[in-house]
Amino acid sequence: MDTTLSIFLQLADAVIITDIRHRIIDVNATYERITGFTRDEIVGMKAGLLKSGLTPAKTYEDMKANLGQGKPWSGVFINRKRNKALWYSNITISLVASGGEEYYIGVFRDLAQLKEGVYISETRKSKIQYEILKVLALSCEVRDPDIEGHLVRVQELTTALLHRYNALNRSILTEEYIQSVVNACILHDIGKSGIPEGILYKPGKLNVYERAIMETHPLIGVDILNKISTELDDELFQQEMRIAKDIVAFHHEKWDGTGYPSRLKDDAIPFEAQIVSIVDVYDALTSRRAYKDAWPAEQAVDYLRSQRGISFNPELVDIFCDAMICDSSGYLNEDKRTGEKV
């Protein structure tokens, strides 16, 4: 074997070398010891012989996309050893040229060597985060029987708006950030749990004193999250809690600086709060509640457009109204929850 390639086999971690078609050229002694397969057994076989079926499909999709562009890739595989035991490992795969040929070098870091804890796949991690935060949001707003539907719709619209924005802006947002915002946005009105019901569900307009009390709910929400963060000091929720605090604190700020509670202006308002403010207002306007009738979708869209540059980020309003609410024919999409236009 070429000296350039043989150097990799001297690494302490498990190493696999394949040709460009992913057929195994060589492995080192650490790979043999961990997997239970000898070099002579697997040379010439496809590198996927250890697949367990438990690695998320998206992991392989990301790997293929990066390698197809000649870029190195790192991720976590859940493979199966010769003795059928699961092998959790972080692998970095790089394309290396040697002797006029191209090869893939895979270096595995055995996650079983971690001192504590267990590996949780990104898919499972996201589901755990979503379910726990959803339970938290619902438990804090249990007085409102309509709240679950509102929270789910806010999450769905937030997901769609973030992905659409990303598609139009060369994917500047990471998938991890998008998922964190989607998970956290369900907590946006958690502070309303501290507002008296007589104010929260009052039919008609609030007086100046009631309005002042209502406008404390972002600060109440942040206080709740701070207490939770103190008790739940876990890296599994660190990013979600940070983003959730920004959403809770600032989703009632306005683009022109006239919002509450901090009177932030323009891009001083955290991006995730800018997103949720549009989505929250749209769903609130188009939903029927005990104290108000639902607005027709056209009226809600007109309102959002009238508030571009005043209450909302103009670019986000345009994306939401043009690319998400209206379909290619110019008519509004059917609302799946009622069968009516939204």
From TrEMBL:
The record's annotation in InterPro entries points to:
Cyclic_di-GMP/3'3'-cGAMP_PDE (IPR052020), HD/PDEase_dom (IPR003607), HD_GYP_dom (IPR037522), PAS (IPR000014), PAS-like_dom_sf (IPR035965)
Q: Where is the HD-GYP domain?
A: 125-336
**Record CDD domains:** HDc, PAS
Please give the start and end residues of each transmembrane region.
none
Q: Which domain of life is it from?
A: Bacteria
Ranges for domain PAS: 1-44
Q: Which Pfam families match?
A: HD_5, PAS_9
- Write out the coiled-coil annotation as residue ranges: none
The record's section on PANTHER family has:
CYCLIC DI-GMP PHOSPHODIESTERASE TM_0186-RELATED, TWO-COMPONENT RESPONSE REGULATOR-RELATED
Q: What is this protein called?
A: HD domain-containing protein
Organism annotation = Paenibacillus lycopersici
Organism classification: Bacteria, Bacillati, Bacillota, Bacilli, Bacillales
